[in-house]
Each structure stands twice: as C-alpha cells, then as structure tokens.
Amino acid sequence: MPYMAINLGGVAVGVAVILVFLIRWWFAEKHRPGGLVPFVLSLLYGMLASLAAIGSVSALGVAAWTAVWTANVSGYTALVWGVGGTAPDVTRSQQLVLTAGGYVIVLLLSAVLFALWKWAPRVPNWKLFLGAFAGAAVALSGNVAGVAAIPLGSTVNLLGTGFTAAFG
Questions:
Q1: How far is CA 141 from the centre of its chain?
Q2: Is residue 37 situated within a structural domain?
Q3: Is residue 3 part of a domain?
Q4: Where are the transmembrane segments (predicted)?
Q5: What is the pTM of this model?
Q6: 129: closest CA among 147, 141, 117?
Q7: What is the pLDDT along the chain (168 residues), one digit of tens a residue?
Q8: Is residue 2 assigned to a domain?
Q9: Where are the alpha helices (DSSP H) in the chain?
Q10: Residue 66 located in a structural domain
Q11: Could you give the number of structural domains in the chain?
C-alpha cells in the first residue's frame, strides 16, 4: 500500500462535509443533540481509521486510503478547477502508533460501525458514511492529526490495555 498524503483540497472536502452536516442538523433536525451522535462517532472513527491504518496492507488501510484518495481528487478538482486556487500537501509526517490492544479496539469499533450500518434502522447510514469519510479526509492534515492523534490514540490504547488485561 503506497504512502498517502492529504492535500488542502482533500481537507477542504472533509470540512465541507462537516459544515453541510452541521447546517442540516441545525435546521432540518432542529439541533437535537441525539442527531449529532452517529455522525460525530463515525467522524472520530474515520479519523482513527486514517491515523491508524493508512499505509498498512489491510482492509481498513484500503478503505482509509480510498476515502483519502477520493477526498484528494474531488478537493483538488474543486480548488484548482472550480475556484482557481491551489491544493498543496498538508500531511502530518507521522502515523498514529497503537499497541496490540489498541488495534483490538479499532477492530471492535469497526465491527460496531458495521453492525450499526447493517441493523440499526433508526441510525441513518448516510450519517455513518459521511462522518467516517469526513474523519478520514481531515485526519491526516498536520494540525488535525497532531490534535486528534494524542487523545484518540491514548484512549484506544488505554481501552486496549483493559481488553488485553481482561482477556489476554
């Protein structure tokens, strides 16, 4: 799996998805807090997936790579051909480091997201998809990756430590 960088257009697409969702949530969903939960959780999952798996030869790595590639191409097109701007590379240089238990938690979260997608009729699938897509798109940018990697990685690693202590 090749190294993946995020360009400014890709990050802009991720932020655009977040902004459009927030506007829809405010006006169409009457800013009920429960309407945010699926999107925000899948946004965090998408960030975690990109930070943890991009560049790895795995199903999650391929999914994250595909999301970032899609965001890059559409964002580049929108910035360069749409508004006449540029789309420089804004990638953070390091990948998130997870422990073995941390990767177990990522696997469990992947299973939960899949189960919600498949069997939770009151959770709109588009919220799960767009949240994960936007999270993957913004996660690799220098500022977001720096801010998100520490709490996401630490939390997942801590949960993973608990999991391995209980079952390992």
A1: 12
A2: yes
A3: no
A4: 6-27, 39-65, 96-116, 128-150
A5: 0.92
A6: 117
A7: 456 789 999 999 999 999 999 999 999 999 999 999 999 999 999 999 988 888 788 999 999 999 999 999 999 999 999 999 999 999 876 667 889 999 999 999 999 999 999 999 999 999 999 999 999 999 888 887 778 888 998 999 999 999 999 997
A8: no
A9: 8-27, 33-53, 59-76, 100-119, 125-139, 142-167
A10: yes
A11: 1
